[in-house]
Sequence to fold (220 residues):
Amino acid sequence: MYSIAIDGPAGAGKSTIAKTIAKKLEFIYVDTGAMYRAMALYFIRHQIDPSDENAINQACPDIHVSIAYENGIQQVLLNGENVNGQIRTEEVGNMASKTSAYKMVRATLLDLQRNLAKTSNILMDGRDIGTNVLPNADLKIYLTASSKVRAKRRYDELVEKGVKADFDQIEQDIIVRDHQDMEREIAPLKKAEDAVLVDSSDMTIEEVVNTVIDAFEKVK
Ligand code: DC
Fold:
């Protein structure tokens, strides 16, 4: 059984890259951010204050996250309800970034993530996969890009959808998210010592995909 871990900051292109590689290698793609987002959606729906750790801890036992696959696409279930269509908003992303700092929130998802790697070849992306969830992964990638480049990609995505966007605001939000994800005490985002660093700032998607596949060919 092979496992590939891809970690990196918000907007580095992890999910695009991971989906493409998983398809090519016929691995199962596991998006762990979606699981934190499902928990965040629960906190939002129940109007739980993200700064109130006690309230978060009390809610955790009532939250059951699981995943399923429909036509090869990961669906995340929150207490049995498919919430894939509701977790991709900025509000949910920000709530996930804040609440994923708590021990109880992370513990709620850790076993689920580790168990998935026991049953199939997987490619898992997130913030702490190489450092914490799968420390023995066959290949670890730390995928990053400058905040300017990440903001530009996000900006272009929004403009393409016809959504009004403010570049400076987007970059500011990315910097805040980086800070939250990297400076938390438990399982912060950082490059695992044995991870391959890939800075995609000046790379195309294809170049990144090929870099990762070449690295995998060497270790398998
Ligand atoms: O990758 P994403 O934007 O969907 O993730 C949302 C938030 O979830 C991210 O800001 C931090 C948290 N997260 C985490 O703490 N650990 C992971 N393995 C994945 C995501």
User: Anything to note?
Assistant: The domain at 3-219 is CATH 3.40.50.300 (Rossmann fold). Strands lie at 3-7, 28-31, 65-70, 73-78, 81-82, 122-126, 139-144, 196-199.
